[in-house]
Amino acid sequence: MKVLWLTNILFPEPCRMLGLPEPVLGGWMYAGAQELMKAVPDLKLAAAMFYPGNGLRRLDGESMTYYLIPAPADMNAYRKELEPFFREARYAFGPDVVHIHGSEYPHSLAWVNACGAGNTAVSIQGLSSVCAGFYLGGISRRELVKFVTLRDLMRRDTLFAQQRRMKARGRYERELFSKVGHVIGRTAWDRAHAWAMNPEARYHFLHPTLREPFYRSEWDAGACEKHTIFLSQSHYPLKGLHMVAEALPLVLRHYPDARVHVAGPDILSVPAWRRNGYAHYLGKLMERLGVRDRFRWLGRLSAEQMCSQFRKAHIFVCPSMIENESNSLGEAQMVGTPCIAAYAGGMMDSVSHGETGFLYRFEDAELLAMQVCRLFGDMDLCRHVSSRGRRAALARHDRSANAEQLRRIYRDIAGDTANGTDGREGGRKEDSPCSC
Fold first, then answer.
1. In a designed cystine with 68, which of 57, 111, 117, 251 is the match (CB 3.0 to 4.6 A)?
2. Residue 33: inside a domain, yes or no?
3. Which value, in Å, is the radius of gyration of the alpha carbons in the chain?
4. Looking at the 3D structure of the chain, how many domains does it have?
């Protein structure tokens, strides 16, 4: 079987071949590809992805073929000029199945418009059409207007403009879902939204395979840095850092040495003329609450460095207002770090409250603070949550099982194509024949 992936992340292998820095994000996709090829030796796998170059370029890796497509200047806009590259890559490889990783950006729709959807599945990573409504993280527009910066105005990049761009991407996403016959997802939340957008599409359930280092790292209650909270993202309101700031004074009342470590660049220490509106809002909020000195940004972290931070942390918090299934939450549970997550999106599928972690309503800073203090004060509870969370994550992200499930999905899609259908329930005939 020949399978072609479409991704918006340049994998590590072509990065090395081109002398480019390897990406921090998306490593789980590459890990999944490696496991899939181990499980299915006769599989021929190729990936179409974007690179900083001109013209379509083919690279032959050790076990995969890469079709490199010139990256558009703006990933948020529909780029019709991508369509000839997509047709050329598809024609060159001749796949039995096309697997589009992610629906959030318009290039996914451009592929379907160029090549049809008869043997194509779309994996849900996040849903722009849904997440756009949560983009401002529960902060009122009236409040955020006060923190618009010169940088935001000069770049036309206020939080409101960012939200509008996400809404625009969401319209392309809805059109994409109306055309595809197969959807691959991993939570009850994404299944519900896929069904709402296209009840005729077939839904295939698949847990992600995570990056290799998380399978061999394990949290130790005796070795962690007591009273530290680790967060994996912070750079826009949907991710909820401001709610952790709101909760921290209550935590400090009981644990004066508590501190928060955050992966990613320090958005508060850049010069004022480069600071965006959310950073401006956060800085003022932390100053008002007296907690600015309790937050430390760690910069961009590799998989190994993320593992190290999960092991060091006393607890991991995922405070997002909406998520499909947070890969960082899965990674934390794999390592065994005690976890707290907002009851939002698909995260309740990953956390059994009181057993594999704790859940709280996104806007309830008091409940978040109490749960942090509960874990800080009870190492036996931490060990309980750690062991059960790790056990559940090891089963959920089992590499062999997930690779086998993906093989079955591909055979199902290829079988639908061979039978003259596009995979929609009821055996609907192909609506959009491939132009390749």
1. 57
2. yes
3. 22
4. 2
3-state SS, 28-91, equals HHHHHHHHHHHHCCCCEEEEEEEECCCCCEEEECCCEEEEEEECCCCCCCCCCCHHHHHHHHHH
Retrieve residue 123's tokens.
Answer: 């994996």
CA distance 289 to 233: 21
Place of tokens 């994998």: 11
Q: Rounded distance, CA 99 to CA 120, Å?
A: 6
- Shared domain for 353 and 403, answered yes or no, is no
Question: Over the stretch 211-224, which tens digit does the pLDDT of each residue have?
Answer: 889 999 999 999 99
How far are the Cα atoms of 111, 180, 422 from residue 433, in angstroms, in the given order? 13, 12, 10
Q: Is residue 345 part of a domain?
A: yes
Query: Across the chain, which distance is largest between two alpha carbons, in Å?
Result: 66
Three-state secondary structure call for residue 341: strand
- What's the average model confidence in pLDDT over 427-432? 35
Q: Do 358 and 408 share a domain, yes or no?
A: no
Q: If you ran DSSP here, which 8-state letter would residue 109 be given?
A: H
d(CA 430, CA 424): 9
Residue found under tokens 């030796």: 41
Asked if residue 413 lies in contact with residue 119, where contact means CB atoms within 8 angstroms, the answer is yes
Question: Which residue reads 């007591």 in tokens?
Answer: 226
- Is the distance from CB of 360 to CB of 367 less than 8 angstroms? yes
Q: With contact defined as beta carbons under 8 Å apart, do 244 and 368 qualify? A: yes
Task: Please report, for the domain that includes residue 254, its CATH number.
Answer: 3.40.50.2000
- 412 occurs within a structural domain: yes
Q: Which residue has the tokens 């490199």?
A: 68
pTM confidence score: 0.91
Average pLDDT taken over every residue of the chain:
92
pLDDT digits (tens, 9 = 90+) for 364-411: 999 999 999 999 999 999 999 999 999 999 999 999 999 999 999 999
* Domain residue limits at 388: 212-396
- In this structure, is residue 423 part of a structural domain? no
